[in-house]
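Run log, item B.
One chain of 180 residues. Sequence copied directly from the ordering sheet:
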Amino acid sequence: MGTLRMSAPTAHRQSTSRVKVLPRDETREHLLAIADILAKVMDTTVKIPGTSWYVGLDPVLGLIPGIGDVIANLIGTIILGLATRLQLPRIVIARMSLNLLINGTVGAVPIFGDLFSVWFRSHARNAALLREAAMQPDRETHADWFYVGGIIGGTVALLLVMIACMVWVVYKLWSMVTGG
């Protein structure tokens, strides 16, 4: 019977070619809808009466000492999982990860971190990045890499300032306790 045989170079070319295949449109739209719903629940579920501000589950979870911000960020990683399922560019996933890192880092500061979460809305930012990149999958640019580098630098600087403040507070408390 007639079997189709490929020459070795043709088979090799097919196996090593990098083809970006997006999921069917209905699947992509379903995943984008999940991201939008999750972002709304985490960031903008309830309007604060008398203001134009909305709060979601993220700042509420942040009120739980120690573990609240971790839970909020774990929930936020679902959007990252959707991004990998949609085969988004790595730079977009890096930006989304940095949004979660910033929210988690600043969110660890009592009260201020929760107010920051209300303003920053990392989940809504990530859902917007996801939607934008899913519609234009080959979006990696030098500006994206510059943005990520700036965010990493800013995050490291913020962490160093927070550590310095904590060391200073501990030093002052120790000085008060020891009378020195």
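Observations after the first pass:
- Residues 3-17 have pLDDT under 50 and may be disordered.
- Strands lie at 46-47, 54-55.
Flagged for discussion on Thursday.
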